[in-house]
């Protein structure tokens, strides 16, 4: 199979290879495709598997064991640079917590109070 990338796509990939996010352009493309396949499979998931993680995160938030959004973003950047495959897991778990929290109490979404648990999704 031969895939032709647009100049913009190639520039993006080359920039991320240059800064060390990927070891090569080929590995970047493979990883990005793998991540998208994972995302699509998760879109059809009922998220039942995430309930224990969400419960743990809610308990942490209720105890006040949370971090700021800036700390969360910095931690994700560090984690994804060490092992970019973890990024999909972190984002998925974090999104699952937000979805569960919003379903449990829709006023949290409106009030912007869906928090970022400090440890539940990083253990």
Description:
The protein has 123 residues and is mostly helical. It has helices at residues 7-18, 25-43, 51-63, 69-82, 85-104, 106-111. The chain has 2 domains: 1-44; 47-123, no CATH class. Helix content is 68%, strand content 0%. Helix 3 (51-63) crosses helix 5 (85-104). The model is unreliable at 118-123 (pLDDT under 50).
First-to-last CA distance = 39 Å
Task: List the helices and strands in order.
Answer: HHHHHH
Total tally of structural domains: 2
What is the makeup of the main sheet?
none
Instruction: Kindly state the percentage of residues in helix.
Output: 55-70%
| Structural class determined from secondary elements | mainly alpha
Tally of DSSP β-strands: 0
Number of separate helices? 6
Query: Using only CA atoms, what is the Rg?
Result: 17 Å
- Which outline best applies? flat
Q: Identify low-pLDDT runs.
A: 118-123
Q: What portion of residues belong to β-strands?
A: under 5%
Q: What is the typical, i.e. mean, pLDDT?
A: 75
